[in-house]
Structures are given as C-alpha cells and as structure tokens.
Amino acid sequence: MREPSADKEPFGLMAEFRAPEQLVDAVRRSREAGYRSLDAYSPYPLEEMRQALGMTGNVVPWLCLTGGVLGAAAGYGLQLYTNDAYPIAIGGRPLFAWQPFMLITFELMVLFAVGFAIAGMLVLNHLPRLHHPVFGVTDFHRASADRFFLAIFCNDPRFEIAETAAFLQSLEPLRVEAIQSTEEPE
Amino acid sequence: MAQIFTASADTRLRAAALLGVVALVMALVVLGGYADSSYATLVGWVEHQPVPFSHQHHVGELGIDCRYCHAAAETGAHAGLPSTFTCMTCHSQVWTGAPMLAPVRASLASGKPLEWQRVARLPDYVYFDHSIHLSRGVPCVTCHGRVDRMPLMSRAQPFQMQWCLDCHRNPAPHLRPPAEITRMDWSNWDEEPGIHAVYGELMTKVYGIEPAKLTQCNICHR
Amino acid sequence: MSETASDTRITAEITRIPLHHPHMRNWWLLFGLSLLLLGCFFVAAGALFLNGVGMWGNNIPVNWGLAISHYVWFLGIGHAGTLISALLLITNAHWRNSLNRFAEAMTLFAVVCAGLYPILHLGRPWLFYWMAPYPNTMTLYPQFKSPLSWDFFAVLTYLTVSLLFWYIGIVPDLASVRDRAKTRRAQVLYGLAALGWRGSGRHWARWQQAYRLTAAIAVPLVVSVHSEISLLFAAGPIPGWTSTVFPAYFVMGAAFSGFAVVLMIAVTLRHALSLRDIVTERHLDLLARFLLATGLMTAYGYVYEVFDALYGGEKQDLATLHDRFTGLYAYSYWGAVIFNFVPLQLLWFRGIRARPAVLFLIATSVVVGMWYERYMLLMTALYRDYLVSSWGEYHASLWEWLLFAGMIGVFLAPFLLFVRFLPVISAFEVKEALRETGDLRHA
C-alpha cells in the first residue's frame, strides 16, 4: 500500500476508537467494504492487526536472513583473505584454521543480521518521518497513550469524502475527522 | 494535536544525515591520505641542523665514503653520527675560517658535541641493527636514498612497517655485494641479467636467510 | 477500572518522569556524585595516558590485574539486561515488560565500562583501533586466531546490538513522551529521537518482526560473548584455567551478577520514582528466584572446578586448587564463596523475597561476591605459573582503584541521565502485556 503524497486535500479521514478490539474490528469491516488504502494507529502492537490489515509480507525476516548470511560470509571471508594475503606464522597454528575463525564469523553474522533487520524495518516503514498529516488530527497525541485510530486515505479508489465519512460513522467511533494535508508551503 | 515539525523538516533531516555520511567518508579519506602522506612520514622534509651539512658536496662531489663519518655502520646496531673530531680532520685544514663552520669550531673548543637532528629514525619499539643488513649486502641507498644528490639531508623512505616488510618478505632482489655497500648508483645492475638475476636468490641460500623467519614479530619487536 | 483508563494511567505515570522528574533534588545530588566519580575516571585515565601502565601494579606474571578482572565483571553484569529483555521476550514471559527497559540501559552502560578496560590496558591505548582489520601502512591484519581479537569483535557486536535493540524498543515510548511534552524544546528533541513514530499498524507489524528477531539472535549472542571471555582464559596453558566448564561457568556467573544488579536497580527505582504498581512485588519475587537459580548454577561451576582438578590429578592444577584454598589470594576465593552463596540461601524463603530492602542487601552481596570471583580467577592462576621463576605477586596500585571508582562514574552518570530524561519503563509493552493478561500484577 502506498500512502498519498502529503499535499492531497483532504489527505484522508480518521476515526477514533476507545478500545483495541473496536479498532481491529473496524479495520476488518473496512477491508470487507473494499477499502484498501487504510492504516490503523495504536499505542502498542496488536497481534491481530497484521492479519486484519492483510499484511502478508515477510520482508524483514528475509532481510535478517540475508544479513546473517552476508555477515557470516564477510566474517569468514575476511579471515581467509587476511590470512592468505598477510600470513602471520605464529604459535604453530595452521594458516587456515576454521575453529578459531568461527567466533568472528558468528559475531559478524549477528551484527549484520540485526543491522539488516532493523535498518530494513526503518526503511520499509519510511522512518524517520518527522512530519505526517495524521499528526494534525485532534486527539492524535492519544494514539501513543490510550486511543485507537483508523485512517482511510484519499488515494483509495473507493474514497468519496461524504460516503467514506458515513461509512466510518457506521463503525461507531468516538469521532470522525478529516485529515488535513500539509500546511501551506513556506 | 498540532504538528511539531514542518513538512520541510524531513528534507532537512535527510540533508543533515547525508551531510553526516559525506563528512564521515571525507574524514576517512583524509585520515587515510594523511597516513601515507609525506606530511606524516616526513619523506623529503629537511630537518634543521646546527650546520647545513651537504651530503651532495661531500659524497657526490668529493667522494668521501659513507663509513668515514658513519663509522659504526658495519659493526654496530647504530651507524653513528660523526664526532666533531671527524669533521675537524679536514676542516682544521680547509675552510678554517668559514663562518658556516663556526658551530663546529665552537664545539671543538668547548668539548660539547654538535646536536645533529636525526633524519632516518625508527620508532623506539623497533629493533634495528645496521651491521646485519650491511654484512648481508643491503646497500645504504636502499633505505637512505641518493644522499649524494641531497644538498640538505632528508628522509628518502617512509619507514612504515609495510616498507620494512616488503623487503623482509622477499629479500632476494634487494641484495648486493657487501663489498660495494656504499655505492649510490645501481642503475646498471639490472642491465646484466645473466650475472645479476640469480645473485639475490643465490645469496639468500648462501647466508641461510629464511623469509618466514624474517617476518616473525620478534625479529623487529623484541 | 476500565481497560483504557489503566492505559491512560500507565502512560501518565511513566512519561511524567522525563517531563517532570519527581525528585530533582535527589537526582542532582546523585548526578553530582556520579560526575565526581566521572572526574576520577578522567584523572586516572589521563594519568595513565601520560605515564603508561607502569603506574599500575600489574607485571609479569600477573599481567592482567584489576583491569581485566573488572572487564569480565562489568561485561558479565551487562548480560542480564539482554537475557531479561531478549530471552524472556521470546519465551513470552510478560512480566519482563516492567523490567526490560532499565535492564537494557544497564547493559549498555556496563558494556561501555567493560569495553574501556581492555583498551586502557593496552599500553598504547590510543592505538586501540589497530584491533580493527583495516587497510594500513603496516601491511598486517590482526591475528584472528587470538582471543584478543575475538574480544574486539564480540564487544563491538554486543554493544551495537544492545544499542539497536534498546533503541528500537524505546522509540514508541519516546513518541509517547513527545506527544505529552509541553515545551517546544522537549517536543523537538523527543520528536527527533522518536523518528516520527506514529504507531501505525503496518509499522508495528514490521517493528515486531524486527524486534523479536533481534531478541532471538541476542540470546545466543550473549552466550557467545561470555564464552569468548572464558576462552580468553582457557585458550592459554595456565593451570587453573583449563577446565572445560569455563564457558558455561562464565555465562552463568555473568547472568548471576547481572540479575543482582537488575534487582538492585529495580528496588531503587521503584522506591525512588514511586513505581510500585508497575514494578510490583511479584516482579521482585521473580527476579529473586532467577537470582537464586543462576546462583546455584554458578555454585555448580565452583564444585565442578574442584572436581575437575581432583579428578584430573594434574600436579599444577592441584597446586592451583591448593593456592585458592590457602594461598596468598585465598581471601578472594573464600570471599567469593561467602558473599555469593551464603546470603543467597535466604531467597529460599518467600517472606524474604517480599522484602525489597533485604533483597537489595543480598544482591549487593552477590555483586561483591562476583567481584571476588573474577579477581580470584585471575590472581590464583597467574601468580603461580609452572616455573618458580615466573612466580610473583600483584597488588593493585591506588591508580587502579581510582580508575575503578571512575568506572563506576562512567556507569552511573549516563544511567542517571537515562533515569532523568528517558522513559525508564517500557510503557507500551506494559500496556500490551496488560491487554494480553488482563492483570497488571502479571504484566
């Protein structure tokens, strides 16, 4: 799903809910009603939300695996290369000794796997993003505390401001509000 | 709630991040360049000396042998810097009144040695012995450069560990007959490949030089 | 109390701390003290840079001294933070959510202290980057078959992974603080640190994947790091360091000392910041049980070491064992045994586990005991080598003790800044656990 660019007017519609179950339910019903360009906001992760939003991608785990393989290869390769290019014959140790090479191989595997997973997560999430139209919604500061929000964005083919607002109202939220687009250009 | 950041804040954040990355890369490039620059290695930089002694004049034009002044090179760990008496063997007869040589005469009169500034200098954690290098035929010019062309003495080689190791890993091409150790110009050495191509290989065998041992840490770091 | 009402309360209770710190006067007192200690660090390290390691008491044969025993000690303490937050996350132990944030912060700063010690011990500390494999003018790379270069990679990886894990764990709470901040400066600073987190469901899904994967990888990482530290000992032919129990013994000792420090911090914070209903008595009880369990496992290491020497029958091993019991440094052996395991036995009683002050004292005793253990492992083995010619004594110089005091400052000063400016408890994870278990006492 792609969000619309921030200068669309209105950016979308936002409904506010009191409980997590209501939000999950609202997302399910919106998707059943055919809305696809939507997002849910909650103060903590909701296990059911991934499924409710219809997210199927496992890009982060695959990135993690890729990072792990790359890191292990880099770690082992580094030790092979350096021992080949600049041999240090010392202590009677064989030049290529896989046993002592394992630790650095493992450490770099971990480093790369974690780095890839976290950097991948941030990139896929388009973070950091300091300014976002949803921050302008009244009460949205409670999305990081105790309220639950559903947004339907204007680039959804079914998005029709009055109709969509009516639909959101039918989900029995606390309020429905239009998400204003970005402020006037400076 | 109100927006905390303007829409352009993200652009500025990204620009700052990019700037940070560029600065980091630049810093690495500059550091890497510095490590190999003559600014760090002092190659070609002249030290200030009490007397502006010219190797070009004494070695190149007059043909004085290196060992006349650096007498201990073949027998000791340090080649040694000449004492005032060494200078005075000639300069008590020639240029006796030269103002340039006033510090030498003063040194002789007071008995206080001249304070020469060392040009070719290794770190204190490196063990280096001139005698073994000379007796195996590493000529002066390999490390000290064409001093016969230096009006003022400057460092000819970077004296970095990689430079030492280049030779220790493969000493054969650098060996010359020990009898000609102070010869400065070896440009015609390779012109006679028939005679000289195998010289180094042969001599490593004769001397029993094992490059594997030459690269052990404690050869130089004792 | 309705569900979201408790969400509101938890958020308020945790975010109020960075925004309106409840005990500024006490905080400043402690922070001033930690700055004083930090000053000691700069004095001790500065003197070391100027004069070299000759200022310290270590010399052949005891060339490690306090620097390395503190390295092992600090790193071991650090491990508990990762174990609590990663191991208990992937095993779905929700009670960890009240403890993980400050435990992870403790890990970070302990690892920084640990990492500084080997660097200062190098002799030419400013050349520590020689441990990194980079193209250089020496045409040499580090010796990768040496545990010392393993150290470099292990500590670096551990520090980076701990930092990343801690940071992505704190981002949603920073967003929460940002949304509750009143002053412009606080909004901008917390806003930048929160990366513009907005709690999107799509973000949470990917975040959870990354967070859980990191946790799953961090657990074997902890084991590998402290096993590597034990190989630092066991890779050498020193009598007393050759037992095969070393990696496990070290990892358990690490968890043991770390849980003790987490317990100390938990007791202090819940008292100082009035967090009794988030860090409940049940949490302290569980921590105490963990402490007891890891303590018994560490005790097994002691027993096995004795058994190993006796069963092996190697003359030098027996001599080292004898030295541990009666030698010059016997006080460190018996100190370790007594401080580690005697007060610990009180934890068998439920009544004791419910008394924070007593728990704090027991944990302190364990921290002291583990300090003795690390010291004992070094001294008793190094001061008597095979040959009488390499027998010697070690007495730490005042500079080493000053550096130790300084290191406490290196740990305390950033930790106090953390307590002052960041959410010390993971508010969103407590709320999540609350939703899933329905009971704050289990959350």
Automatic annotation (TrEMBL), chain A:
The chain crosses the membrane at residues 59-81, 101-124. Keywords: Membrane, Transmembrane, Transmembrane helix. It comes from the Bacteria. InterPro entries: ActD. Pfam families: ActD. This is DUF3341 domain-containing protein. It comes from Shinella fusca.
TrEMBL record, chain B:
The chain crosses the membrane at residues 12-34. Coiled coil: none annotated. InterPro entries: Multihaem_cyt_sf. Keywords: Membrane, Transmembrane, Transmembrane helix. It comes from the Bacteria. PANTHER family: CYTOCHROME C7-LIKE DOMAIN-CONTAINING PROTEIN (PTHR39425:SF1), LIPOPROTEIN CYTOCHROME C (PTHR39425). This is Ferredoxin. It comes from Shinella fusca.
From TrEMBL, chain C:
InterPro entries: NrfD-like. Its main location: membrane. The chain crosses the membrane at residues 27-50, 70-90, 102-120, 152-175, 210-234, 246-269, 290-311, 331-349, 356-372, 401-422. GO terms for cellular component: plasma membrane. It is a multi-pass membrane protein. Keywords: Cell membrane, Membrane, Transmembrane, Transmembrane helix. It is found in: Cell membrane. This is Molybdopterin-containing oxidoreductase family membrane subunit.
